[in-house]
Task: structure prediction
Amino acid sequence: MLPPPTEMRCENVVCDAHLADMRPVKVKHGMHLYASLLEGFARCPVGACTRFFGAEGYCDLTRDGDFTNIRTEPYCSIQHEPQPMYIQRAPDRLQWVCPICKAVAPFHR
Ligand SMILES: [Zn+2]
Ligand SMILES: [Zn+2]
Result:
């Protein structure tokens, strides 16, 4: 059997607060020496939205590079550690998708 996938791959991610399209970004998380560069999705076009989607799920990214209002549900636990899912814009609907194994769950507002 193949080992379970561990890399995140996201497509057409939308903001969980505004359901608007987000774009791939690299952000700095943490301060100074402890800062690390994280890949994820952000830049929701709505006003001053600070939502970010990364490995830990959706969260607000503060000016200091901290995460607040972390949303870990729903999560996927098929073949891997529980992984927060993201909302994907599919051609005719929105759906929750696991960024690792691509499992899909229905999205309700
Ligand atoms: Zn937003
Ligand atoms: Zn999964």
The chain has a mean pLDDT of 91. Residues 13-106 form one domain.
